UniProtKB/TrEMBL annotation:
<comment type="similarity">
    <text>Belongs to the RqcP family.</text>
</comment>
<comment type="function">
    <text>Key component of the ribosome quality control system (RQC), a ribosome-associated complex that mediates the extraction of incompletely synthesized nascent chains from stalled ribosomes and their subsequent degradation. RqcH recruits Ala-charged tRNA, and with RqcP directs the elongation of stalled nascent chains on 50S ribosomal subunits, leading to non-templated C-terminal alanine extensions (Ala tail). The Ala tail promotes nascent chain degradation. RqcP is associated with the translocation-like movement of the peptidyl-tRNA from the A-site into the P-site.</text>
</comment>
<keyword id="KW-0694">RNA-binding</keyword>
<dbReference type="InterPro" id="IPR002942">
    <property type="entry name" value="S4_RNA-bd"/>
</dbReference>
<dbReference type="InterPro" id="IPR036986">
    <property type="entry name" value="S4_RNA-bd_sf"/>
</dbReference>
<keyword id="KW-0699">rRNA-binding</keyword>
<keyword id="KW-0820">tRNA-binding</keyword>
<protein>
    <recommendedName>
        <fullName>RQC P-site tRNA stabilizing factor</fullName>
    </recommendedName>
</protein>
<comment type="subunit">
    <text>Associates with stalled 50S ribosomal subunits. Binds to RqcH, 23S rRNA and the P-site tRNA. Does not require RqcH for association with 50S subunits.</text>
</comment>
<feature type="domain" description="RNA-binding S4">
    <location>
        <begin position="1"/>
        <end position="63"/>
    </location>
</feature>
<dbReference type="Pfam" id="PF01479">
    <property type="entry name" value="S4"/>
</dbReference>
<dbReference type="InterPro" id="IPR025490">
    <property type="entry name" value="RqcP"/>
</dbReference>
<keyword id="KW-0648">Protein biosynthesis</keyword>
Amino acid sequence: MRLDKFLKVSRIIKRRSVAKEIADQGRILVNDRPAKSSSKVAAGDTLTIKFGNKTEVVKINQIVETTKKSEAEDMYEIVDEKYAENFD
């Protein structure tokens, strides 16, 4: 599955266009490598996502084409979450 579609279906990022923009800016790493929105992801991959002052590390548990909101959280687990202390 494409990275931008996974982020939308799993509801990590609400809109696919926003996921595409963030990925194409180089703010997402797949297995510690820079990824574009069209990069393929699979179960077992680790995503590092930079949201402003927050960095989130997520491990993909499963890939599902469509999902309900209640089931979306089963697609991934949050491994680490860091916040920047210096806002300069």
